[in-house]
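User: Predict the structure for this protein chain, please.
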Amino acid sequence: QVQLVESGGGLVHPGGSLRLSCAASGFTFFSGLAMSWYRQAPGKEREFVAYITSNGGSIRYAESAKGRFTISRVNDKNTVYLQMNSLKPNDTAVYYCHAQNGAWGQGTQVTVGS
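Assistant: Here is the predicted structure, written as structure tokens:
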């Protein structure tokens, strides 16, 4: 059974940092899949955050994430990460991991506030 499980969310003050993890299981060839992070804020549509190719050779970010967020992966661990620095209140959202084969995780809540 293909599964993506996000973790690492929580409550953080503005300017703080969080590292999200997405652990994949049941994939026969995780290292061959591009992976992405998306987020969905209350009352808004899900939006793209970051993308990484299967070998990490190409990375893209949403404008809102550039310079603050870093996507990475460790294929030996079947895991993708999203390091988020200088967090702002409008980064508050549920963050989802997405695989090239269409799989989605259940999401992890990130709340930025005092």
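The chain has a mean pLDDT of 96.
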